[in-house]
Amino acid sequence: MGYKHNKEDILETGFHVLRKNGYHGVGINEILKEAGIPKGSFYNFFESKEDFAKQVMEHHGVEQANWIEGYFKQAKDTPINNLKEFYRTLIHLNETDAYSSGCLINVLSSEVGRTHDVLALEANQCFLGWINIISREIEKGQNEGQIRKDFTALEIAEYLHSGIYGAFSRMKVTRSRVYLDIWWDMSFTFIQEK
Predict the structure, then answer these.
(1) What pLDDT, in 10s, does the model give residues 40-67?
(2) What are the C-alpha distances in Å from 70 to residues 17, 112, 132, 155?
(3) Mean pLDDT for the stretch of residues 96-101
(4) Which of 24, 43, 48, 177 has the smallest C-beta neighbourhood within 10 Å, fewest atoms?
(5) Rounded Cα gap, residues 171 and 163, in angstroms
(6) With 90 as the cut, is the pLDDT of residue 159 above it?
(7) Is the pTM of this model over 0.85?
(8) C-beta of residue 82 within 8 angstroms of C-beta of residue 137
(9) Domains of the chain, CATH where assigned
(10) Which residues contact 183 (CB under 8 A, 6 or more apart)?
């Protein structure tokens, strides 16, 4: 009896391959080699390379949403400090990765967002899911008088998350956290209630 390939394992391999190399920087054969699966098994799970990338994004988006949700559920400090620490954690995770990859969704949306509508839609869904979770912590901070109220919690969440993803792009170019640190200092100065 042949080995049954686990779709979760293939998606996890896809996450690492696409995050490091992007969509156009990896072919089906490389994905097959990295996942250790024959082409027929790949097409049992995925209709095409685009479908594979979409499912990898969707899988990662859900995992990341669960992680963000869990992060704020267990956070015990004030909302503003929880947000500061959350973004410090994201910066640290990229530092331990030698600044080489950034976020899978950011990588793919920047690369193929204009040319692959299916992937653009999936990237947007992931971002919206994460931003909605973050906005709840911002709203708590607004209610406690820690975060400015002249913008909605959703607008501030969008501002923070868009900003860090821009800084991730600079991070990859410079192989340094310097722009992430500048973004962090300026962003939390901007959103904090005076």
Answers:
(1) 888 989 999 999 999 999 999 999 999 9
(2) 26, 30, 14, 22
(3) 72
(4) 24
(5) 12
(6) yes
(7) yes
(8) yes
(9) 54-191 (1.10.357.10)
(10) 163, 164, 166, 167
